[in-house]
Amino acid sequence: MEIHRSDFPPEFLFGAATSSYQIEGGVREGGRGLSNWDFLCNSTPGKAQGQNGNVACYSYGLYKEDVKICKKLGLDSYRFSISWSRVLPGGRLSAGVNREGIQYYNNLIDELLANGIQPFVTLHHFEVPQILEEQYGGFLDKRIIKDYLDLAELCFWEFGDRVKYWTTFNEPWTFIYFGYVTGQFPPCRGSSSEEHAKLSALQHKTHHRNPLVCEDGDPGVEPYTAARNLLLAHAEAVDLYRKKFKAQGGQIGITLVAHWFEPFHHHLERDINAAQRVQDFMLGWFMDPITYGRYPKSMTDNVPPERLQRFSEEESIQLRGSYDFLGLNYYTARYVVAASVHHSGPPSYITDQHGTQKNKGPDGNPIGEPTECDWLFSYPKGMHKILHYIKQRYNDPPIFITENGLADKNHPDYTVSEACNDETRIEYLREHLKEIRLAMIENRVNVKGYFVWSLMDNFEWASGYNYRFGLVYVNFTDRYLSRFPKNSALWYMNFLDKKYRPIPHPLKNNALLEDETISPTSTSPLPYQTNAPNSGEMVVHEGTPTKRHRKT
Question: What Pfam families does the entry give (predicted)?
């Protein structure tokens, strides 16, 4: 059975998503300051596969072309994030506003609106000005709350007359877990190598860890501290928006990531409880406070107050109900088996959960269809289940699916045509959209929109350029960073087409973009900035260098 946008309400928003560091590039242009990711990728050998976002997709210079792609796809909305370091290079208002950065986002927003596309803006997508990390440790210190409020107020003031959808943070769990437990993301604080090896056995993870492990940090305390400050910053920003900027007519929420967790043995109460506990430690860690003003009971039962500081009555009141909508990012699912409550090493966020995640069930079969991305198993029913779960547990909130998508491995030996043949992505998107529709019909879940991750291939954080999530292929070996529609882009375009036209064979329809590619209108190459630290070459994905001429 095929599915079409007409199967959803007319006001349902369809779009695609990106984030600033992953696509913008231009890190040394327009007065932008240094971010935590700039510091990590350019100063720390071995991180992010030795790659960086110095150039990325160079959407900083090619935003008009990218908006053109959005329009040709037929998107209702485009989700992007603000680079904190681009608008506030010093991290706070008192250190000065970068008007060039403000102008860039004004231009992007105006270009979107001129093409009938709603901007859907994220204030924080894993980026922190490096100066705030160096001055007081970023989210480990309460001073981050005031500085984050500076960012929020500046953006509401400058862009709020045209932006009607705001999210305060993207995936706080990911930012905290990989930044303060495993040490893969900045500020790279986590367990020692020896302790990390023990923890890995308790929480199954398939990504490579050894070269990314950081020995600086306390994963039994710091994740909870940073998350607490993040939650309070979120609540303060929502309060600020509602008190000073609500007249702009917008809505504000937060984007949380969730897996679906199945008990390893459905007949064993201990596994059922473990699956719920792990869900509490992922989604509930943030969703319970902003809904009920407190942490989930399973967290307070398992983590003492000296490590997980409880909220004061005043903080609880401010947190409770601090969202107009929930942004949900869903990609995959896991089995969970109960783990021992006894652990000989130091306490950790991982061991606090008393549950071990597994990709395969007791029969040896994976929970979903394996993909080229080793952590992502396609389990569309999990989308339906997590939506129903959120409706029941959190009082039926309005939900936007702010990310859902599939990654392909980068294959340097593929031709562009081969790389654009992504039928598995089409199947993934189609089946997840079907489950969203079923959840809306059968369970009356209040879903308001859907954003594919991602509009285009980009810098995938610790994975560098080794995975491609885009609807649009970006040729990172081409000095123009040309964009090519994948089959999935053509499928999505037809899915969104209100004329009900038949879906042609993807390889025979390249009408999405003139000559199948979008390039800069200028014949000059892009400003030279390497995607590899301290190099005169641009490292492309698997480390294959392509010579580029320096701009003189």
Answer: Glyco_hydro_1 (PF00232)
List, in sequence order, every residue forming a beta bridge with 356; answer none if it has no partner.
337
Q: How confident is the model at residue 344 (pLDDT cuts 50, 70, 90)?
A: confident
Cα–Cα distances in Å, from 356 out to 127, 198, 367, 393? 30, 12, 14, 23
Q: How far apart are CA 28 and CA 38, in angstroms?
A: 10
DSSP string, 282-309: IIIHHHHHHHHSS--HHHHHHS-TTTSP
434-451, pLDDT tens digit by residue? Answer: 999 999 999 999 999 999
Q: Over pLDDT 70: what percentage of the chain?
A: 86
Q: Is residue 206 included in any domain, yes or no? A: yes
DSSP string of 297-342? HHHHHHS-TTTSPPPPHHHHHHHTT--SEEEEE---EEEEEE--S-
Whether residue 297 lies inside any domain: the answer is yes
CA dihedral of residues 509, 513, 517, 522 (deg, nearest 10): 160
Looking at the chain, how many residues does it have?
A: 552
Distance CA 129, CA 219 (A): 23
In tens, the pLDDT along 469-500 reads 999 999 999 999 999 999 999 999 999 998 75
- 207 domain-assigned: yes
Q: Are strands 483-485 and 537-540 parallel, antiparallel or unpaired?
A: unpaired
Q: Assess contact for 252 and 124: CB atoms under 8 A.
A: no
Q: Whole-number mean pLDDT of the chain? A: 89
Output the CA angle 186-120-59, nearest 5 degrees: 65
- Here the CATH number for the domain that contains residue 159 is 3.20.20.80
Q: What is the dihedral of CA 517, 100, 167, 462, to 10 degrees?
A: 60
Name the pLDDT band for 47 (thresholds 50, 70, 90).
confident
Residue 190 phi/psi, 5-degree rounding, is -165, -160
User: What residues does 452 pair with on adjacent strands?
Assistant: 16
The two structure tokens encoding residue 84: 């904190």
- Quote the domain boundaries for residue 313: 5-547
Among 157, 153, 23, 154, residue whose Cα is nearest residue 81: 23
Residues with catalytic function: 403
pLDDT of residue 192: 56
Q: Count of domains in the chain?
A: 1
Strands 369-370 and 377-378, bridge-based pairing: antiparallel
Domain presence at residue 552:
no
CB-CB contact of 129 with 157 (8 Å): no
